[in-house]
Amino acid sequence: MGVKATLPSYELGFYALVVTCAVLYSGSGIFEASRDSMNRKAFRDGIKPGWHYFGRKMDVADFEWVMWFTSFRNIIIFALSGHVLFGKICSMTVPQHRAVMYMIYGLLAVLASMGLLYLMIILSHCLLLYSVALAKQKWLCYVAGLCCLASFKVEPFGSWQSGFVTGAFDLQDVLFYGGCTFTIMRCMSFALESSQKEEGIYSIFDLLKYNFYLPFFFFGPVMTFDQFHAQVSTRELRRKDDEMKSIRVSALLHVGAIVAVDIFFHFFYILTLPSDLKFVNRLSDWSLAGLAYSNLVYDWVKAAVMFGVINTIARLDHLDPPQPPKCITMLYIFAETHFDRGINDWLCKYVYDHIGENHDNILKELVASVTTFAITTLWLGPCQVVYIWSLVNCFGLNFELWVQKFFQLGPFAKLEAKLSGAMSRRIRAAFGAVNFWAIVLYNILALNSLEFALLVTKRLLVMGFPESTLSIWFITYCGVQLIKERERILAIQEEEEKGDKAKLE
């Protein structure tokens, strides 16, 4: 049935009430657990003194968040502010050469932060993959690019290359591997786009302009070369109506999100609690489910804030970068699940869609998904947890298609055709609720630990059956119905906008 099937307003109101009460109840359990564990010795490293306004300690278990927004906050602000000012001057004076100016600033910033040897490593990989691109053979671009990526992700090659970079500071490893691996993905995009070019090849100067755009360099997102090259080569720099207002609002929202997360961490120790399984095992099933879900939501918030800040700067440079990832709360389909839209778009364009085509053929879909997750495993760094994460998510993606194909068979299709649109939506939401928790359980093992994921699974599906299992499933069903209602409204709005455009034409 179509996405526009409606439900009675009183039914939707009941669903909203159930979800609200469940979130408040689960949150109260996590709050009490955080308060009681504030002074536990096992949590000494993860809980530190926070803002004195609150008189409470703060969860500082996420190294990256603490480094970005406390220890290295001023350095990051200084570097990105310099880029914005430099870019604004260039856009006003020499807009036709702004990509060159961005490249020069990026090269100098990388040189100043990581040193000459690091810059030489980056340039050597760029030169190698540019040489491969000259052959204009796709298979050679894939092989060379993946070998270069493996040289940073597989030991002892990664340690050997990082050994050339002298000095030591807290973010050095993050910057080293982030800059190197994103460079390889960008170089592969350049090589693959060059191989598709009918006449000639892009210059190495185009590759350097693409790779050393500072906002994207260390942490992404990855913007495919064809998109970046087309946008940065535009000489007429014009903004849409109210675009600057949108950029200012976006910047304020991200600052507000950073402050809100810091305040949240004073009252809910969602990152530190899972490190002590004995303590977590004493929580109620509701609190444990909320803890697992909140960890996934936080990871989305972190990605949304990080990519959102970078995207705001890119929009000031008249670029249209990849959007932040779709909110994890709105995901109940494996095909839409991702935490980095840039990498997701890269994988879809060059691997998943290239092999799977329209994703209707089960065999092609299997090959496409296995290949995609194999490359993702290499990108994340091969280890036991990543292997398991890739395996279960690959299975979930394919199983989703198998179930869809199964219920498209004649008898089931005829049965659904006899149902009303509302009833079909309810049945689909029931399956979507199961899918939702499969996504949660499959991903917390990568965000926390395999042991925590197994504990949550055992408590919710085995020890908590049937009371906790069915009640949490029903609450999730209510949440999925609210998501579907939002999708219905957006679909109607999109159709109305298309109709308005057609009338104007």
Number of helices: 21
Low-pLDDT segments, ≥5 res: none
C-alpha-based Rg, rounded: 24 Å
Mean pLDDT: 88
Order of helical and strand elements: HEEHHHHHHHHHHHHHHHHHHHH
The N- to C-terminal Cα distance equals 31 Å
Task: State the strand order across the main sheet.
Answer: 1-2
SS content category:
mainly alpha
Shape: globular
Helix content: over 70%
Tally of strands: 2
Main attributes of the structure:
single chain; 505 residues; mainly alpha; two-stranded antiparallel sheet; 21 helices; 2 strands; globular
Describe the protein.
- This protein is 72% helix and 1% strand.
- It is mostly helical and 505 residues long.
- Strands 1-2 form a two-stranded antiparallel ribbon.
- The radius of gyration is 24 Å and the shape is globular.
Short recap of the structure:
By secondary structure, the protein is mostly helical.
List the helices and strands and how they pair.
Blueprint: H1 9-36, E1 47-49, E2 57-59, H2 63-71, H3 73-93, H4 98-114, H5 116-133, H6 138-153, H7 157-162, H8 172-196, H9 204-211, H10 214-217, H11 225-232, H12 243-264, H13 277-280, H14 285-316, H15 341-356, H16 362-380, H17 384-407, H18 410-418, H19 421-447, H20 450-463, H21 467-504
Antiparallel strand pairs: 1-2
Helix pairs in contact: 1-14, 1-21, 3-4, 4-5, 4-9, 5-6, 5-8, 6-8, 6-16, 12-14, 14-19, 14-20, 15-16, 16-17, 17-19, 19-20, 19-21
